[in-house]
Amino acid sequence: MTLSTTKESTTVNYLKDYRVPTYFIDEVDLVFDLHETHTTVTSLLRVRHNQLSHDPEKTLTLNGEELILESIKLNGKSLAAHQYQIDKNTLTISAMPDHAELEIVTQIFPQKNTALMGLYVSNQTYCTQCEAEGFRRITYFLDQPDVLAKYTTTIIADEKKYPILLSNGNLVDAGKLAQGRHWVKWKDPFKKPSYLFALVAGDFDLVRDQFKTISGRMIDLRIYVEKGTGDQAHYAIQAVKEAMRWDEKNYGREYDLDIYMIVAIGDFTMGAMENKGLNIFNTKYILAKPENATDEDYMNIASVIAHEYFHNWTGNRVTCRDWFQLSLKEGLTIFRDQSFSEDLFSKSVMRIRDVIDLRETQFPEDAGPLAHSVQPDSYIEINNFYTATIYNKGAEVLRMLKTLLGESVFRRGMDLYFARFDGQAVTIDDYIECMHEVSGIDLKQFKRWYTQAGTPTVTVVGEYHEAQQTYTLTFTQTCLATPNQLEKLPFLIPARIGLLDKEGHEILSEAVLHLKEASQVFTFKNITSVPLPSLFRGFSAPIKLNYHYTDEELFLLAKHDSDAFNRYEAIQCYLLNKLQSAKTDSAGVTALFQYLLQHETQDDFLLAEFLTVPSESYIGEQMAVIDVDGIHAKREGLMKSIAETLQDLFLEKYKQLHAATLQYEFNREAVAKRQLKNKCLSYLLLSPNNMALGKTQFLAALGQNMTDTLPALMGIVNQENAFREEALVIFYDFCKDDALMLDKWFAIQAACKLPDTLQTVKKLMAHPQFDLKNPNKVYALIGTFCHRNRVNFHVKSGEGYRFLREVVEKLDKLNPQVAARMLKPLTTWKRYDKERQALMREQLTILAKQKCSPDLYELITKSV
Ligand code: TRP
Ligand code: ZN
User: Fold this and answer.
1) Dihedral sign, CA of 607, 608, 612, 615?
2) N or C: which end of the chain has fewer CB within 10 A?
3) What crossing angle do the helices spanning 706-717 and 668-684 adopt, rounded to 10°?
4) pLDDT level of residue 57 (50, 70, 90 thresholds)
């Protein structure tokens, strides 16, 4: 018996080192024997030598971590100790035949698994997480995505405790055993990489439905949730059907198995996982009812469900050759789920929110020590590369490609991609080649978006020549150096633009300019008066725009641009200018907001976005040195004066919308009304005089409607007032038996702007219902405080930094992936003033001296 130890190796993996596998595994037959102390995994592998591999050695090296090897047989014969070799993370067999059957028996300990990778137990339920490299914690295997196999899985367990046993594919057999045990056998007819393997065992409520596909097949839809929560899975299963319909309509993709299952799990590192036919979800993205979920929760559920469903084609049927190609599936699938949400909820608001998200998460990443390209060329720990760059920037790159090619050509490229590569593990280059073939457009330069990190800045200058009746736009692009990439070549940037006249009428309704050179001039003819350019409509490229608009011009765009995103952008730009000027004069802002409140009557949802002041992080992004306290004070000051000046207007709107939204319903129109209503309320609650309003809404909505409860409570909690403590107690009493609502209770306190919040957070860590092993709790309390509550996390004393370092030390021993996620804000130390820089670095240096996971090691070494 040999115990392989935890992964400590810190080797760097390079894309340039990619080699085709020496061996393939075509078939996998797994038997899981689940016991309370351990699980025995018997794995029968059909192994085949790869003719195309250039490795002359007939050596098979399998991955394995934290496994106890019980036995190993080659073609039915036990291997003697000298016939194989076990290292920390590998099992090597030399002198392998070209074709072989390998039987490997290992023991694993799911009950002790706190890393939530491989097979683990969450709340009496066994479940797996194999992406990216979790399968090697289940059994020895070629755990890389270019090894595609057909899986058969038998699960044996106690029938009373684990009546439901699930794996990928179709249920093919089942039976009973002695001592109250039972077994089932699942067979997945589709070849897949090991990261898509899944197993679940437990007892659940089951919500079922059916979907009739475009070709008339009936799909059995099943969502398994914790006992007692079945009433909260109805929205999720509707969303599955919406997603299936959407993918048929927009991409011609039909679901392939006869059954589609989702299991919701309380302990889950990420949002959800697209395992073939058996998605595993964080409960957060399944469970919802009006009294515990907000409109945002509902919208997020639909988008994550769509995301995982869409992976069935973009990720599963066509998968990644290696993890450097991660954005091939993630960027593409995010792009698809964003488009789905735009169609389902609101084209303009979803676009605005996705751009906000990109700017708040990806832009800082691109500007910091962890910057990497959408197709990275190296990594230490792949878990660290599930980033905003791979996901969100990857999605932006595809949106640009669609803009360059046009809708129908892009669709033909997608069709070709699916047809050509179905059942294969491919690369980003393979994908781009399809797009090149259908369009005839040379995409060599465009591919720099995949290989060069950093956010380009595009400076635009406009010039009107009255005599010639022409207008020229000069575009100049630059991109700052990023780690290991000092020089950048020009990107191919699609600039979707329009031109407006002085009255706001369109002179040029829309054009897509292809920027290719470092500097490029475009001339527009027959322009009879000075035009106003509307640039990068719909955020047509993930760049920072530099164009000097006057306040009047921004007002004109805010009021008249036909592109809703650019109206929003003009407002943001105007607000940013005001927030950056030495003395913030709020008169112009209130005049603009007043105009919008009185005239923007078509779209309440969009209006709510328009009335949003840029976040502290976005304001900070614009500064050479982030002035944490200055930004906070200015922003709060501006919002207070908007609230005071427009108090009557906000109140009027509030009352009118409140009367129209008494009964909670989740649909586009109702969401729009509630969003605007609660935007008005949030301004009203900046004044202590309106506390009664907040209290009334809070008490009335609690137990009925979380969308109204939360903003009211937030307004109350964010200032000293007589009702504050009581409100938190009332909320706690209501939510104490609901894990997801408790997360909101933790988060709301961690987000509080009052100065003693760090003490509160420390106290809450000792709360009996806080659990460092549960990622949702960590994200709610630690994540909210350290990543979102800037003024308090960055207190001058450095206490916040020390707190985070201590938490990360503890977390690293339980779940390195979560520890690394939490550490992120400390890695951006260079963006702050000298005192804070020193304090942040000090904590990183303390961590650097300790033994830690490769996850942390990579972040620390890259950032100090
Ligand atoms: N592929 C998953 C997605 O839909 C990502 C994911 C889920 C993941 N769980 C994970 C990645 C655990 C790494 C580790 O985006
Ligand atoms: Zn994904």
Assistant:
1) negative
2) N
3) 10
4) confident
How high does pLDDT run on average in the chain?
97
Q: How far is the CA of 790 from the centre of ligand 2 (A)?
A: 29
User: Tens of pLDDT along 274-300?
Assistant: 999 999 999 999 999 999 999 999 999
Contact 544, 455 (CB under 8 A): yes
Contacts of 810 (CB under 8 A, 6+ apart): 772
Residue 54's pLDDT is: 81
Give the model's confidence band at 585: pLDDT under 50 very low, under 70 low, under 90 confident, else very high: confident
Q: pLDDT by residue (tens digit) across 661-680?
A: 999 999 999 999 999 999 99
CA distance linking residue 155 with residue 163, whole number of Å: 11
Residue 514, strand partner residues: 494
pTM listed for this prediction:
0.98
Ligand 1 mean position, distance from CA 281 (Å): 10
DSSP 95-146: S--SEEEEEEEEEE-GGG--S--EEEEETTEEEEE-TTTTGGGTS-B--STT
The answer to whether the CB of 608 falls within 8 A of the CB of 295 is no
**pLDDT (0 to 100) of residue 584:** 74
User: In whole angstroms, how far apart are CA 164 and each of 130, 156, 205, 360, 740?
Assistant: 20, 11, 10, 42, 24
For residue 611, pLDDT beyond 70:
yes
Rg (CA), the chain: 28
Q: Which of 319, 326, 386 to mutate to test the pocket of ligand 1 (most atoms within 8 A of CB)?
A: 386
What's the pLDDT tens digit per position in 427-453? 999 999 999 999 999 999 999 999 999
Q: Can you tell me the mean pLDDT for 486-501?
A: 98
For residue 132, the ligand 1 atom closest to its alpha carbon is 13
Q: What secondary structure does DSSP assign to 56-69, as a single string?
A: -S--EEEE-SS-EE
Nearest-angstrom CA–CA distance, 683 and 611:
10
pLDDT of 582: 81
Residue 76 is given by DSSP the state T
Question: Rounded to whole angstroms, what are the CA distances from 548 to 459, 532, 535, 551, 592?
Answer: 9, 11, 12, 10, 19
In angstroms, the CA 402 to CA 414 distance is 10
Q: What is the pLDDT of residue 9?
A: 55
Ligand 1: atom nearest CA of 311 is 4
Strands 39-49 and 60-63: unpaired
* Residue type present at position 208: R
- Residues flanking ligand 1, CB < 6 Å: 129, 131-132, 269-270, 272-274, 307-308, 330, 383, 386
Give me ligand 2 centre to Cα 219, in Å.
Answer: 22
pLDDT at residue 7 above 90?
no
The residues that bridge with 33 in the sheet, in sequence order, are 40, 156
Q: Place 56 in a pLDDT band, splitting at 50, 70 and 90.
A: confident
Is the separation of the CB atoms in 142 and 23 below 8 Å?
yes
3-state secondary structure at position 602: coil
Amino acid at 377: D
Centre of ligand 1 to C-alpha 273, Å, is: 5
Relative to beta strand 90-93, strand 84-86 is antiparallel
User: By alpha-carbon position, which residue is closest to atom 14 of ligand 1?
Assistant: 131
Cα 465 to chain centroid distance, Å, stands at 47
Q: Please state the length of the chain.
A: 864
Beta-sheet pairing, 259-265 with 218-226: parallel
Q: Contact, 477 vs 493, CB < 8 A? A: yes
